[in-house]
Amino acid sequence: MSAGKAVIGQSGGPTAVINKSLVGFIKEATTRDFDEILGARHGLAGMLGEDFVDLSNLSESQLYGIAKTPAAALGSVRKKPTDNDIEQLISIFERQNIRSFYYIGGNDSAETAHLVAEGAKSIGYEMKAFHIPKTIDNDLLETDHCPGYGSAARFVAHAFQGDDADNRSLNGIKINVLMGRHAGWLTAASTLGKATEEDGPHLVYVPEKIFNIDTFIKEVKEVYESLGRCVVAVSEGVHNKDGEYFLQTYAGETGSGLAGKKDSHGNIQLSGSGALGDTLTNIISENIDGARVRADTFGYLQRSFLADISEVDAEEAERVGQYAVVVSEKEDTGSIILKRQFSDKYHCDVDLVGLEKVAKNTKAMPKEFLDENKPYVTNDFFEYAMPLTGGIEPKTQIFV
Amino acid sequence: MSAGKAVIGQSGGPTAVINKSLVGFIKEATTRDFDEILGARHGLAGMLGEDFVDLSNLSESQLYGIAKTPAAALGSVRKKPTDNDIEQLISIFERQNIRSFYYIGGNDSAETAHLVAEGAKSIGYEMKAFHIPKTIDNDLLETDHCPGYGSAARFVAHAFQGDDADNRSLNGIKINVLMGRHAGWLTAASTLGKATEEDGPHLVYVPEKIFNIDTFIKEVKEVYESLGRCVVAVSEGVHNKDGEYFLQTYAGETGSGLAGKKDSHGNIQLSGSGALGDTLTNIISENIDGARVRADTFGYLQRSFLADISEVDAEEAERVGQYAVVVSEKEDTGSIILKRQFSDKYHCDVDLVGLEKVAKNTKAMPKEFLDENKPYVTNDFFEYAMPLTGGIEPKTQIFV
Fold first, then answer.
1. Are A256 and B275 inside 8 Å of each other by CB?
2. What's the pLDDT band for A34 if we cut at 50, 70, 90?
3. More confident position, B1 or B150
4. DSSP codes joined into one string, A293-361
5. Residue B302 and residue B317 in one domain
6. What percent of chain B stands above pLDDT 90?
7. Residue B397 covered by a domain
């Protein structure tokens, strides 16, 4: 039997280095004996519509260009396949003699790869199915961290360094809202460029802890009264004890017209809106007299800024893409993970785990990364996250 | 008579390279015979409170660190001096034997330097007063461009490159709101990283043109129907024919609770809020069925992001600071400007103009930089702005 064709797709929210994984995959795949190497436009949507790009004959300069470009070069999609989709997909794979399926994405993509593997098995069609991890949210199980996170964390750390200097210049209270619906990894990264305790962010609110608005006001007030200023990092996903997002519980009172708006999956829309930051700004303004209060929502820049990529992240992203091809020579299914090696110098090896271990669930920050007594991170988090950013130089040469 | 002391302050919204001007000043000033070189904390506020830092004895490594740090190392202030302030200031200068005043800032700072010069003259106190330009808004008269703009423009161009790739990945309509109350320079910079016509931003709305919401909806719809997606750049200061900001006219209808909120100068608060972007998102969502619509407000990152500085901007910022000292050997007052030399290779010389020419007014984009027929820039703008960014490499290696 020939090796058949290989197909690869990209899914979910893009990252700044997701195309490195694609290029790592292509470079390795072109050394193997696949009949064809197909890229599907917009992930599952392109596979179901047989909208393929031939990836076998790209020049070195094209590959270089793709690897340098953030976001999904093949286009992305947010789609959870139905039973019917999977059935249709397998029949397309059979007809096209596609024998290897690779899907770059988050836990939904691992789930999709799992469903493809199960679907093919159920009708006795021999094929391989692999998940290649990416997400700026860093919330996949099993892997030490997710490709895409290091660059996003680097952007956030650098953004806070500058924004903190800006806040020192003019004082006041600054609230920055970061991506992270279920986990605070990216919000926590806001601390990575701090040189001293007095540098911002001074307070870090993540979804791993219950968010209480009265405590929030009190904590902001305390820092503001002590330093004359306060820089705050808030995850978009902060929620109450019942798991309701803060914006849900405040919709229509002090927030923007967007509060409570739902996206096409029925999820509350948290990104692509300044509603949370503006609502918190209103509340703080009402509670702290005379303070200059501003909010920024870092938005899509966190996952797409191309001019400040982590070299470590970029290299690892390429490596997981490449390894998916290597490992598929001897294994049938699985999710690629990064395993941290405990030596003096930071290094992660690549490895494979079962798809079902990565599918569906998300990984929150562990307790030891979060301070028990205040809204802040621990040194353990610092040591975990810093190498992934490629290194952040502390900067605060300032007289105020 | 001895040279007396020199004092320098920073004022207004910081930039990523305003400290380069400070360092350029310090390096030159320490070679001269000033009795002392004082930095005032928070500009005028620090001068009036005699809150000074000695800038004479900083090490090379401190100067290097300061130059690398965005925002105002001495602290900034937003303060227009009253007659009484000026009187008090001159009496402090007299008592301290401060004979040279340097103020880094925008047109308000040029006005302050002018008032200081006039105030001193009126009582026969011999002193010098100079304005050193900075502003990301690029809206000062006389100078070819303002130090600070090139780095902000570079950040915006790079941010749009990534965000446009992100938009291609998932399609939909993306609205990005840029700083610029009176002039669209920064919003126009969003186009600088485009490789093809199909790259975003597709539409650019600046305060130089009247903003009409119905035309906006129509234009967004046209691009969306033609490309399946649309990336839009909007200046925070877009306004109607009566000069009313869009948010003012829409407050309370579809916008956020922050719409119409005023800052401490009685100006409508445009920055540090996602209100404009969210309001436009609501309106577009209501008018274009089924479209995925998102907004980001780039906020303070535009003026403070330290990891993607324009080298050209950094060098010029340092040079205007240095030149202020050089020129003050033979002149008494003035504002430093950059003058573009018309040769094959981009270069600006430094020069001096009267303070009154720079004070108070702002410079909008000239007609020849804006397309007459559509919300877009011209090639003339491109040629003007590109060198200031240090160069933006076009990037769109993408299959969708």
1. yes
2. very high
3. B150
4. EEEEE-TTHHHH-TTS--HHHHHHHHHHHHHHHHHTTT-SEEEEEEEEE-SSS-EEEEEEE-HHHHSS-
5. no
6. 88
7. no
pLDDT (tens digit per residue) in B329-340: 999 999 999 999
Domain count along chain A: 2
- Confidence category of residue A108, pLDDT binned at 50, 70, 90: very high
Rounded Cα distance, A381 and A365, in Å: 9
What domain range includes position A377? 153-306+364-389
Instruction: Please judge whether B161 and A39 are an interchain contact, meaning their C-beta atoms are less than 8 angstroms apart.
Output: no
Question: B155 and B302 in one domain?
Answer: yes
Residues 111-150 of A with CB under 8 A from B: none
What is the distance, to the nearest Å, from the Cα of residue A190 to the centroid of all Cα atoms in its chain? 15
DSSP label at A267? Answer: -
Do B312 and B390 form a contact (C-beta atoms < 8 A)? Answer: yes
- CA–CA separation, B236 and B254 (whole Å): 17
Q: Do B166 and A395 touch (CB under 8 A)?
A: no
A240 with A283, same domain: the answer is: yes
Q: Which of B13, B385, B372 has the alpha carbon at shortest distance from B208? A: B372
Structure tokens at A287: 């509670």
Specify if B399 maps to a domain.
no
Q: Given an 8 Å threshold on Cβ–Cβ distance, is A62 in contact with B397?
A: yes
CATH code, domain with A239: 3.40.50.460
B33 and B132: one domain? yes
Q: Is 70 exceeded by the pLDDT of residue B21?
A: yes
**Strand intervals (E) in A72-216:** 98-105, 128-133, 172-178, 203-205
User: Which pLDDT value is given to residue B313?
Assistant: 98
Is residue B35 a part of any domain in this protein?
yes
Which of B162, B295, B396 is closest, CB to CB, to A305? B162
Q: Please tell me whether residues A299 and A373 are part of one structural domain.
A: yes
pLDDT of residue B258: 43
pLDDT attached to residue B262: 55
CA dist., res. A310 & res. A192, Å (int): 13
Average pLDDT over residues A94-111: 97
Q: Let me know whether A118 and A229 are in one domain.
A: no
Tokens found for residue B199: 């790259």
In chain A, what residues touch B293 (CB-CB under 8 Å)? 272
User: Residues B130-175: pLDDT tens digits?
Assistant: 999 999 999 999 999 999 999 999 999 999 999 999 999 999 999 9
| Nearest residue of B to residue A306, measured between CA atoms | B162
The CATH number assigned to the domain holding A336 equals: 3.40.50.450
- The predicted complex's ipTM stands at 0.94
Nearest-Cα distance to chain B for A94, in Å, is: 25
Q: Do B241 and B264 have their domain in common?
A: yes
Tell how strand A37-40 and strand A52-54 pair up. antiparallel
CA distance A240 to chain B (A): 22
Q: Is residue A323 part of a domain?
A: yes
Cβ–Cβ under 8 Å, residues B186 and B137: yes
Residues B338 and B383 reside in one and the same domain: no
